[in-house]
């Protein structure tokens, strides 16, 4: 069917086949961006050996993608508001396809890390506007369905990464982890060109200086945390920390009084939005404490084979997908605060049950606990994201969508750093301690979520 070329208003939404096609384009784009983030983790030893670099150096194959993605999220969200969310998603897909080709043909760590950084920017272009696009694709009354489907794609991309990587590496060499993105990316690009809606454009020049301060603030603070986790010198930690703090102060000062700030300090003054960002951060700290440490638990403590690692993690995305059809409908009818609180409590109990596993558990003892935690996360995420999107002022979908992703990626980065610190500081069963910390942090997120019940203004968001 012909593409609807009208400029849509927020909450108007598409209908029928047009909505299905547009959502398929967003879903496939999000899946690609997150699958590729997770898929390289499993292959790090293989890639490092092939490129003749140490394990510590090979980590930059992951770090370069994550760092570039985090520092690009808010600037790309601001750019998307000026050139159109659909167009920015298309640009992101082109960057992703081209950089995937260069990743596959790289023969040095430097070349691969640079290509991965470009991939991270492409992923940021996609992720920073994904939920903003959903706000235009779905009518306001059923926006929860679109957000729930987006949450499924996030879970599937992160959770299925290790399994997909294991399958590819069993039949092909590591460059095919990246070559596989090319046909999938082209399919997503064709769908995006054909179906993504036109959105209103924000006027005004792009603020390059704010983008620089943003990159220095997020980049330096993440590197400071990474330096602490890997026991770097105090001088290095302080240098990164001071640079990040100074850049953050300059960024906030520059954003004050602007009608459409790149770093949305005005939106963070809205209690429901600010609390949603904080809860999302805590939730993803908790989930990454589990995701990063759990392979060590399965292999080192329970003596499972490496091929079983992906299978043991699979119940996490499966649990999220199982509850998605129900949550997609409930999130537009039941107060989001109740759903997100119940979800995080369930996730916390799932992690606690994993921490309390017997010394020699059967496989099903592990599977149902991981699945329970995943179901809780699937109940939590769409309603919390919905609160953030519906409390954002009109015309600020890009900023809200960017902050949803910032809370996710900063939470994931912090979770990974906490795993590294735990393994470095605790000698006895550190992977189980990570599960304990994951349960505690998820429970704290639940308490913060439940505190919204006492807000008359935003409790029904």
UniProtKB/TrEMBL annotation:
<dbReference type="InterPro" id="IPR011701">
    <property type="entry name" value="MFS"/>
</dbReference>
<dbReference type="Pfam" id="PF07690">
    <property type="entry name" value="MFS_1"/>
</dbReference>
<feature type="transmembrane region" description="Helical">
    <location>
        <begin position="308"/>
        <end position="327"/>
    </location>
</feature>
<feature type="transmembrane region" description="Helical">
    <location>
        <begin position="273"/>
        <end position="296"/>
    </location>
</feature>
<keyword id="KW-1133">Transmembrane helix</keyword>
<keyword id="KW-0812">Transmembrane</keyword>
<feature type="transmembrane region" description="Helical">
    <location>
        <begin position="363"/>
        <end position="380"/>
    </location>
</feature>
<feature type="transmembrane region" description="Helical">
    <location>
        <begin position="20"/>
        <end position="40"/>
    </location>
</feature>
<dbReference type="GO" id="GO:0016020">
    <property type="term" value="C:membrane"/>
</dbReference>
<dbReference type="InterPro" id="IPR036259">
    <property type="entry name" value="MFS_trans_sf"/>
</dbReference>
<protein>
    <submittedName>
        <fullName>Multidrug resistance protein stp</fullName>
    </submittedName>
</protein>
<dbReference type="InterPro" id="IPR020846">
    <property type="entry name" value="MFS_dom"/>
</dbReference>
<feature type="transmembrane region" description="Helical">
    <location>
        <begin position="437"/>
        <end position="455"/>
    </location>
</feature>
<feature type="transmembrane region" description="Helical">
    <location>
        <begin position="60"/>
        <end position="81"/>
    </location>
</feature>
<keyword id="KW-0813">Transport</keyword>
<dbReference type="GO" id="GO:0022857">
    <property type="term" value="F:transmembrane transporter activity"/>
</dbReference>
<feature type="transmembrane region" description="Helical">
    <location>
        <begin position="231"/>
        <end position="252"/>
    </location>
</feature>
<feature type="transmembrane region" description="Helical">
    <location>
        <begin position="205"/>
        <end position="225"/>
    </location>
</feature>
<feature type="domain" description="Major facilitator superfamily (MFS) profile">
    <location>
        <begin position="22"/>
        <end position="457"/>
    </location>
</feature>
<feature type="transmembrane region" description="Helical">
    <location>
        <begin position="121"/>
        <end position="138"/>
    </location>
</feature>
<keyword id="KW-0472">Membrane</keyword>
<feature type="transmembrane region" description="Helical">
    <location>
        <begin position="147"/>
        <end position="168"/>
    </location>
</feature>
<feature type="transmembrane region" description="Helical">
    <location>
        <begin position="334"/>
        <end position="357"/>
    </location>
</feature>
<feature type="transmembrane region" description="Helical">
    <location>
        <begin position="174"/>
        <end position="193"/>
    </location>
</feature>
<feature type="transmembrane region" description="Helical">
    <location>
        <begin position="93"/>
        <end position="115"/>
    </location>
</feature>
């Amino acid at each position: 069917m012909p593409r609807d070329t009208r400029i849509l208003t927020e909450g108007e939404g598409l209908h029928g086949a047009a909505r299905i096609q547009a959502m398929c384009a967003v879903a496939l784009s999000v899946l690609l961006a997150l699958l590729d983030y997770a898929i390289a983790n499993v292959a790090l030893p293989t890639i490092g050996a092939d490129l003749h670099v140490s394990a510590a150096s090979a980590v930059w194959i992951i770090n370069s993608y994550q760092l570039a993605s985090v520092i690009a999220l808010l600037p790309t969200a601001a750019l998307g508001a000026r050139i159109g969310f659909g167009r920015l998603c298309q640009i992101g897909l082109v960057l992703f396809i081209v950089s995937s080709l260069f990743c596959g043909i790289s023969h040095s760590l430097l070349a691969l890390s640079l290509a991965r950084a470009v991939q991270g920017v492409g992923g940021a272009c996609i992720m920073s506007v994904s939920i903003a696009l959903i706000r235009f694709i779905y009518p306001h009354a059923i926006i929860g369905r679109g957000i729930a489907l987006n949450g499924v794609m996030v879970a599937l991309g992160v959770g299925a990464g290790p399994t997909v990587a294991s399958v590819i590496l069993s039949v092909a060499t590591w460059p095919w982890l990246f070559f596989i993105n090319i046909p999938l990316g082209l399919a997503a690009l064709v769908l995006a060109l054909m179906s993504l809606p036109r959105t209103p454009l924000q006027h005004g020049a792009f603020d390059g200086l704010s983008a620089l301060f943003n990159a220095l603030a997020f980049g330096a603070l993440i590197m400071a945390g990474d330096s602490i986790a890997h026991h770097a010198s105090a001088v290095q930690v302080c240098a990164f920390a001071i640079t990040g703090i100074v850049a953050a102060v300059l960024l906030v000062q520059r954003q004050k009084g602007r009608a459409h700030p790149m770093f949305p300090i005005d939106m963070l003054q809205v209690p429901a939005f600010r609390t949603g960002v904080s809860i999302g951060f805590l939730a993803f700290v908790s989930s990454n404490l589990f995701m990063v440490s759990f392979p060590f638990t399965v292999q080192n403590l329970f003596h499972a084979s490496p091929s079983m690692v992906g299978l043991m993690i699979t119940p996490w995305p499966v649990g999220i997908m199982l509850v998605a059809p129900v949550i997609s409908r409930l999130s537009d009818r039941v107060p989001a605060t109740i759903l997100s609180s119940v979800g995080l409590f369930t996730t916390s109990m799932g992690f606690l049950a994993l921490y309390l596993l017997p010394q020699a558990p059967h496989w099903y003892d592990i599977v149902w606990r991981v699945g329970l935690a995943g179901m809780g996360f699937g109940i939590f995420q769409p309603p919390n994201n919905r609160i953030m999107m519906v409390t954002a002022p009109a015309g600020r979908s890009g900023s809200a969508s960017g902050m949803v992703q910032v809370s996710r990626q900063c939470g994931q980065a912090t979770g990974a750093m906490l795993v590294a610190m735990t393994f470095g500081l605790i000698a006895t069963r550190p992977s189980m301690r990570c599960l304990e910390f994951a349960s505690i942090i998820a429970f704290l997120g639940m308490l913060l979520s439940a505190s919204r019940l006492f807000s008359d203004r935003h409790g029904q968001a």
